[in-house]
Amino acid sequence: MVQTPPRVLTVAGSDSGGGAGIQADLKTMLAHGVHGMSVIAAVTAQNSLGVQGYWELPAEAVRAQFRSVVDDIGVQAIKTGMLASPNLVAVVAELLGDVRAPVVVDPVASSKHGDTLLANDALETLRTRLLPVSTLVTPNLYEVELLTGHKVRERADMRGAAEAMLGFGPSWVLVKGGHLEGEAADLLFDGTEERWFTSPRYDNRHTHGTGCTLASAIASRLALGDTVPDAVAAAKEYVTGAIRAGFPLGEGIGPVDHAWRWRDGF
Length: 266
Prior knowledge:
nine-stranded mixed β-sheet, ATP-binding, single chain, UDP-N-acetylmuramoyl-L-alanine:D-glutamate ligase
């Protein structure tokens, strides 16, 4: 008898270039053997050079997509990404409040190229509405500073950043230290125990989609039954391989390779 795989839902923006956003999420989910589903919250015109424009969808369209998937198909984990505006953040937070599946929030604030993807007036809604319903939030250092005012200059600062993020209500926080010098070190914290995840730093500029990929990999592993620490460990290993195999695309920054495990086996 054919077994239905675990189902994971991404609520995020579409990346027309295919390297990040909904497209990266679904590729990552496929690579982990889960069934990926999507609620598109925004559409971007985006390529290897940056984001040329974005258009958020109406709240009723986001709500309808979510209800259509969750009420019929069901979910074992949810990942959120680009939500853009206070209204969309509030709508998604409301929808997530009725779901028992673990929620991984990637608080996307800007693109790899520095293009703004989250309105300044959405920060407070994210803090007060979305983070309290999240199982795990995965900010990079720029997002930590935006949300908490806590600037991380070295690895020793990451514990304080994690504590500040936990103050908004998530069960766990993964502070990503990839922008610091040295090995790529991320801190997972639940208010009690520090868990560090490190990996070599590869000399590869083609890293578009890293944050989306990591959060989606974590959500996929949670749907497969991993604990949060085990899910983060497995996702870190996967995204490190994807970064190592990132390839050039267009005239700018190329994407990580979501199919690196398959290509390694060819």
